[in-house]
Amino acid sequence: MFRRWTCVMAATLGVAFVVPLQAEGVADSFRAKGQAKLDRLDQTDMQRICSGPVGMTVPDDVRARLQKTATDSVKFPAADRFLGKWEAGQKIAQTGTGMQSSDDPAVPSGGNCYACHQMAPTEMSYGTLGPSLAGYGKQRGQSEAMLKYTWTRIWNPQAHMPCSHMPRFGDAGILTEEQIRDVMAFLFDPASPVNK
Amino acid sequence: MNTIPRVVLRLASVLILASTPALTFAAEENLFDEYRQMMADDNPAQLAEMQGEEYWKTAGGPKKQTLQGCDLGLGPGKTQGAYAVLPRFFADAGRVMDLETRLIWCMTTIQGRDPAELSGKAFSKQGQPTTDLEGLTTWIAGQSRDRVLAVPVDQPQVRAAFEEGKRLFFYRAGPYDFSCASCHSQSGKRIRLTSLPNLTTHDGAVSAYTTWPTYRVSQGAARTMQWRMVDCARQQRLPELIVGSPVTVSLLTYLAASANGGKMAAPGLKR
Hints:
The complex is a heterodimer of chains A (about 200) and B (about 270). Chain A has about 200 residues and is mostly helical. Chain A has seven helices and one strand; from the N terminus they run αβαααααα. Chain A has two domains: about 1-55, no CATH class; about 80-195, Cytochrome c-like domain (Cytochrome Bc1 Complex, Chain D, domain 2). In chain A, about 40% of the residues are buried. Chain B has helices at about 5-20, 25-40, 45-55, 100-110, 115-120, 130-140, 155-170, 180-185, 200-210, 225-235, 245-260; strands at about 90, 95, 190, 195, 215, 220-225, 240, 270. In chain B, the strands form three sheets. Chain B has a three-stranded mixed beta sheet with strand order 6-5-8. In chain B, strands 1-2 form a two-stranded antiparallel ribbon. Chain B is globular, with a radius of gyration of 18 Å. The two termini of chain B are about 20 Å apart. The chains are: A mainly alpha (about 200), B mainly alpha (about 270).
């Protein structure tokens, strides 16, 4: 009862909050291991709303709220330095480890972009959960609007696509600002294999 | 028997070959399918099955008992066809159980073994011998080969576990925002070169559920459905999922019942 009431309250006020799963007894089925503690079972506002079955719909006002929260979360890089080194970005896109209970927290996380996206056309081992990003920079150019759009996509995909299954690489602290700059260069640099 | 290492070697060399970027994804899949067919009667999981059968019949544990008094749902000692009607509700334990959870329960209550150890060391690490649980599970699942899956969803407790499993399947959490559905709710998708079954469809659930336990060539080990749940939860960036816990049983009830009507083909053979 209380929980239902707080949900309605939170939805009305538009504040992000977390539903503790511990209360539902599910946490008893897990044990903390390495960096993966039990608080990972708690849901954020977005996670809770986006946990419906296939074909779920989100009411327009809730969508708008999710998008606003996500858009507000985006931190653009200092001095508009959007692009780092594509070579480093390529490595990040290839690296699949990060934040698993089995991963060393001292090692920086990868982006694992290749798990879901085609990128450099020469790399055959790519997944298809997301759209192809081959030729990304060549096709779209480097306007400020395009750089900001793509930075936002990577920092918090919920800003453009509420309930997206792509991780919030910046907002959730998976990649550092520096790493995101490098991944951006991998997408945009004319010398990057993505654009060859 | 001594053909097994040779076949594994041959398969391993094909997999190494297939992992060179020059081969397309489709070519790799075809090669593997071809070898899977060639090896149909030669699955290295047979070793695990033999070990499981022997364990079932040999007195063991502090109480020096065999598992032949263990009731997997069809009566004490009955293994034929048992896997095809699991998970189910067990009145003596007061809960729904899948095969592995039930086996741990039997080894605990009949043989006096330590449940925490059985659950905590359920799976062999790379290069280590098959565990008792892996052997038993592979053997008993093999005893349902060609049977039609018929999880008793008319049992209200099974129905409830199914609904809970479905809820958990879509439950997004953790720093990557993943649910099982993030990776398993679209057809024809893959992660890198690995095909992902769409577990929300009947066909996808059948293709996945009926082929486990399976021999994993890349790991050189027989792997079970509980192992699959634990490892996918790890990829989901969740804390460690406990073997035999209610969440594993609910997820497996959802998957198995979604595959009802499919024909069991375990033990399978996978990369």
